[in-house]
Amino acid sequence: MLAVGTTGRAACRVESANTAPNMGSGDLAVFATPSMIALMESAASKSVLPLLNPGETTVGTHMDVTHTSATPVGMEIRAESRLEEIDGRRLVFSVKAYDETGTIGEGIHERFIVQKEKFMLKAEAKKGHAHD
């Protein structure tokens, strides 16, 4: 059952693929902000997935974070999440990311609980309404 206080973790090593030049977010070979955000989302998503009903998942809807310290290639990164608020299908998490020397970013992340099949049908329906 979903409960405030549920925590999650995700980790990775900084390598070429998750640096700013390869993510298109800058030209210095350091851990990219989009990579940090993805790791934070992963921690939050994985933390609640086993607690959802069959056929449900969560989707990220909002991220408000700061990325305060650069991390070079080769270092380990970990992200942590804590479920702070449950408002119907809306879940609010505090998120933080760390490298081997300390905090590199933190903020708030929101996810919504959705029915997988219904969500994908709605997304796929956009194909018939795309504008040129």
TrEMBL record:
Gene3D superfamilies: Hotdog Thioesterase (3.10.129.10). It comes from the Bacteria. Residues 14-117 form the Fluoroacetyl-CoA-specific thioesterase-like domain. Pfam families: FlK. CDD domains: hot_dog. PANTHER family: BLR0278 PROTEIN (PTHR36934), THIOESTERASE DOMAIN-CONTAINING PROTEIN (PTHR36934:SF1). This is Thioesterase family protein. It comes from Neglectibacter timonensis.
